[in-house]
User: What shape does this take?
Amino acid sequence: MVQIGISDLSKNPAMLDKLHDLAQIVNKKTLDVKGVFIPHEYLDMFDKVFEEIEYKKFVKRNNSLKSSSIEDETILDGLDDVY
Assistant: This one.
């Protein structure tokens, strides 16, 4: 996996056009990985992963709904069937 610095990317965003590998977007000062670049040709391989991430984020954002009432639990159970 290739590593690309945030500052390098901001100076030359066209480098993504030439990139055909997975790449980590890294803050080179702190060595923190800020994101991952996935070329569009591989996007369909990650569809299930993206759906799972979106679902987990949805549940985390709406966690207060789970404990509010029994009526809300039936709604959330129905949402589980969707995902």
Observations:
- The chain has two domains: 2-37, 43-82.
- The CA atoms of residues 15 and 39 lie 12 Å apart.
- Residues 43-82 form one domain.
- The longest helix spans residues 47-61.
